[in-house]
Design goal:
Chain lengths: 470, 470
C-alpha cells in the first residue's frame, strides 16, 4: 500500500500533499503504467485521512491525466513520460543594452512633457471615472467609442477642413497597429511603396508583414507617379503635408497626379499619413489628399501620440465608404485596442476645446523654440559650417553642413562627445554620396542649454576636421 | 490686375480671403498655368492691404503648390487640374445592423460587471494619477512597464506555478494583437493549426493573416500529434487547460506527446492559450505546458480582458529565451500598445493582492451561479431533454439535447423566441451530423431570471417538436 507522511498543519493541505506524492511516484516510476491504485476508502484508512481527501487527490490526478478510472474496477496509472523534471532554467539573453545617457539626442524626436496640460488631463481622467463609472467596464465597438469618433470628426471638420462621418473613423492603439490592419484589409499580395528617404519604422512594419515593398525615391515634389507605374506599385504610404525628414510639402499638382494614378486602376490606394500636420508654423494647414479625392482611393491616418504624449496610444484612420464596408465584413471581429477609459478621457478633452487649446499653445511654443534654435545656429560657433534648410513646419528641420567630414565619421566623433546625431543619409534606403552632410535637427524634446552645448561640441568636431587634427 | 473685395472684419482675416480668391481663380481657370501674378507690392497697393497680407497669401499658395516663385522674376501659376471640386459626398454604407435585443444571449460569453470591484479599481486609477503624475506621459518600453511585468511574473509564480522572468513577458492591447505579432515573429510561411471545434475568432485572425491554416479535429485528449505530422503543421494554437467550447482538459500524456512533437523539428511551436485557467472550480489549476517544456517550444498567452473587463485591453505573452531575442531584434521597434496609465493601474491592483482577491471572489460567484444554472436545468422544464456534460471549469458548459430537432431549426425557432443560441456544431469547421444537439451554455453574463425564462422557452420549442406542432 502507498505510504506517505502527510502533515495536517501544512499550508498546502492534505489532499494537495497526497496528490503531489502520488504524482512524484508516477513520474519517478515507483508507480508503473497500468498499475492499480488502492481504492479511495482503503487508502484513506491506511493514511488516516478522510475519503474526501483521497478523492480530491485522485480527481486532480485524473484531471491532469496521470491516472484514469475504470468503472467498477478502480484507478490505474496512465502512460506518461518519465522522468519529467522541471525545465532547466535557461539563461535569458541579456536585455538590449540600455541607451547611452546622451548629452544631446537628436534622434529622440520626442515631445517635451512640460508642455502638456497634465492638470487638465488628470482632471478629465478623474471626471471620466466619476461620470462613466462601471460603464468603463463595457467594451467599446470595434471602431472605438462613438463619443471619441464624434469628437475627432468635429475636430477634423473645424481644423482640417475634412467632412467625415464618425462611422468612417476607426480608432486603434497606435498607427503601427492600423498599418498592420490595413495590410490585412488591402491584401498582402499587393505591392506597397514607402518614401525614400523616409521614417524607417514604416518600412519595417511592411517588411515585418512580408509584403512586396518598394522604396520610391522622392523627387522635389514627392513620389513620382510614373515611377509607381513603372514599378507596378498598388498602395503608397506618404506624408504629403509634411514629409519626414525633409519637411517637404507636396504641391497640389503632385497631389492631383497621385490621385489620378490611384484612380486609374482598381485596387490602388494612398495611405495619407498626416502625423505632423498640427505643427505647421507658416500659413494655413495644407488641405489633405483625402479631402480632394473623388474616387475613394485615400485612407487618412493620424495619431495623438505626437500631440499629447507617446504614452497615450490613440490613433485613428478614416476609410472611404467601400473600404469601410470591407473592413466591417472582414476585420470587424477585431476588438478595439484602446481601453474605453482612455477613449472617453480624450473625447472629453477634445469636446471641451482643450485639445485645440493645447495644440495652439504647443504650436506657439515650438515656433519660439525653433526660432531660438535657428538663432543659436546662425549666431553660434556652428554658423561657419551650417546652412538651414526647410523650416516651416514640424518638430525638426534640416541643416546642411559645409564640411568634408563623412557622415560616418561625424556620427562616430559626435557619439564620442555624447551627441547622438541623425543625418539625412540615415533615412535613405538607397545610399548615395550626394545626400550626405545634412543634419536632421529634432529639437522638440531637447532643452535649449543642452542644444547650445551640443552645437558647440559639433562645431569643435568640424573645426578639428578643417584643421586636420583628429 | 486681380481685383477682389476683401472684408476687414471677417473672422477669416484678409490674407486668408485673398489666398482663397486667388486659389479659386486658379482652379476655375481664370488664372492660367504659367500666368504671372502681380508683384506683392503692386497687388497690395491695388487692393489697399498691407504687403504682409499679400506675402502671406502668396506663401500659402506656394506651400500648397498652386503657384511658384522664380528669383528676380516673380510668381507664376503652377500646372494644376481644373476643375477641382469638393468630392461628392458618397453615401456611407449603413452600419451593420445593431444587435437584436435578445432576451437571453447564450453567445455573449461576457463576464458580469457587477462582480468587478470598480470602487477599488477607480481608487487605483486615482492613485496612479497622483503617484505617476507627468510620468504617465513617458512611454513604456516595447514590452510594457516593468512594474506590470513584475506583477504578472509574481502572480504566475504564486498561482500558476510558473517561474518566468519579467524580461520574458510582452504586454499588448489584447491577445488578438499578440497573435498578429507572433505570426510576424514565427513567419508567415509556416503552417499553423487551430482546434476543431474551437473559438472561431482565433482561426479568423490566422485567415486574415493569410497563413497556411489547418483545422485539426480533436480526439478525446485534444490535438493528435500524428495528425500534425501527417498534415505538416509547424505551429499549433491550443488551450490545454480548458478547451473552448468543449471544456476538455488535456491530459498529461497528450501534453507530453505534443511537446515531443514540437521538439522533433526546429521551427515547431506551441501557442498555449491559457485564457480561462483562473476559473477552474474543481481541484488545483492544471500545470501549464510552458512549465514542463524543456526545449523552448511553448509560448504562453493570457489576458485580463476575461478576468477584469473586456474594455480593459491588457494581455501578455511569455516567450522562451531564444524567441525573446528574435522578438527584440525583429519586432522590438513596435511600441507597446497599452497606455502607461492602464499598465500602472493594473500593476498596483495586482501588487496589493486585489487581483487575487477578485479572482477568488469571481471563482466562488461563478461556481455558485453555475450550480444554480445546472440545478435550474435538472429540475426545470428542460430536464426531460437535457443531459449536462463537462462542467468542472470555465464560464460555460455543454448540454446535450435528446431531441430530433436539427440545430438549424433550433437556432431559427429560438431566435424567433428572443434567444440567441450557441450550439457545439457552430464551433466546428468540419461539420458532421454526429456533433449536433449540443448546446453551449455561456452563463457568466446572463441574469438567472432571464436564464430561467430562456430555458422555459427552449423547453417549449422542444416540446412542440416532440408533439409535431410547429
Amino acid at each position: 500500500m502507498l505510504t506517505y507522511t502527510l502533515e495536517k498543519n501544512r499550508k498546502d493541505g492534505l489532499y494537495e500533499q497526497l496528490y503531489r506524492c502520488i504524482k512524484a511516484d508516477i513520474l519517478s516510476g515507483t508507480l508503473r503504467t497500468g498499475e492499480k491504485l488502492p481504492s479511495k476508502r482503503m487508502l484513506a484508512e491506511h493514511l488516516e485521512v478522510s475519503v474526501v481527501t483521497v478523492r480530491n487527490a485522485y480527481e486532480q490526478l485524473m484531471a491532469e491525466g496521470y491516472i484514469y478510472g475504470v468503472e467498477k474496477r478502480g484507478y490505474f496509472v496512465s502512460e506518461v513520460d518519465r522522468p519529467l523534471q522541471a525545465p532547466a532554467q535557461s539563461a535569458l539573453p541579456a536585455a538590449a543594452q540600455s541607451e547611452e545617457p546622451w548629452l544631446v539626442d537628436f534622434a529622440a524626436n520626442s515631445i517635451s512633457e512640460e508642455n502638456f496640460p497634465f492638470t487638465v488631463w488628470s482632471k478629465m481622467m478623474r471626471r471620466t471615472i466619476l461620470e462613466q463609472d462601471v460603464g468603463l467596464l463595457r467594451p467599446t465597438p470595434y471602431n472605438g467609442a462613438l463619443a471619441l469618433r464624434q469628437a475627432i470628426a468635429d475636430y477634423l471638420y473645424q481644423f482640417r477642413g475634412l467632412t467625415v462621418s464618425p462611422e468612417q473613423i476607426i480608432v486603434g492603439a497606435g498607427t503601427e497597429i492600423l498599418y498592420n490592419l490595413l495590410v490585412q484589409l488591402l491584401g498582402r499580395e499587393k505591392h506597397y511603396a514607402v518614401e525614400d528617404p523616409g521614417y524607417r519604422k514604416i518600412a519595417k512594419i511592411y517588411e515585418s508583414n512580408r509584403v512586396p515593398l518598394h522604396h520610391i525615391m522622392l523627387d522635389e515634389a514627392g513620389m513620382p507617379a510614373d515611377e509607381l507605374r513603372r514599378q507596378g506599385v498598388d498602395v503608397i504610404h506618404i506624408s504629403p503635408s509634411h514629409h519626414y525628414p525633409t519637411g517637404m510639402v507636396m504641391p497640389i499638382g503632385r497631389r492631383q497626379e497621385l490621385l489620378r494614378w490611384a484612380g486609374q486602376q482598381p485596387g490602388r490606394y494612398i495611405l495619407e499619413d498626416d502625423y505632423d500636420s498640427e505643427f505647421r508654423f507658416v500659413g494655413r494647414p495644407i488641405p489633405t489628399l483625402f479631402s480632394i479625392d473623388k474616387n475613394e482611393r485615400v485612407i487618412y491616418l493620424n495619431t495623438f501620440s505626437k500631440t499629447i504624449a507617446p504614452s497615450i496610444r490613440i490613433s485613428y484612420m478614416i476609410l472611404p465608404p467601400h473600404l469601410l464596408e470591407a473592413y466591417r465584413e472582414h476585420l470587424g471581429f477585431y476588438a478595439c485596442t484602446v481601453s474605453s477609459f482612455e477613449q472617453y478621457t480624450l473625447a472629453a478633452f477634445m469636446e471641451q476645446g482643450r485639445y485645440e487649446q493645447h495644440i495652439n499653445r504647443m504650436r506657439n511654443r515650438y515656433r519660439q523654440k525653433r526660432d531660438a534654435v535657428i538663432r543659436m545656429i546662425r549666431t553660434g560657433p556652428l554658423a561657419h559650417w551650417a546652412e538651414i534648410m526647410e523650416q516651416d513646419a514640424g518638430l525638426h528641420f534640416l541643416v546642411k553642413l559645409n564640411s568634408s567630414i563623412t557622415d560616418d565619421e561625424l556620427h562616430r566623433r559626435a557619439s564620442a562627445s555624447g551627441i547622438r546625431l541623425m543625418m539625412l543619409s540615415d533615412y535613405y534606403h538607397d545610399a548615395r554620396e550626394s545626400r550626405r552632410h545634412i543634419l536632421v535637427v529634432n529639437y522638440s524634446g531637447i532643452a535649449l542649454e543642452r542644444l547650445a552645448e551640443g552645437f558647440d561640441r559639433l562645431a569643435t568636431i568640424l573645426e578639428q576636421e578643417e584643421n586636420g587634427n583628429v
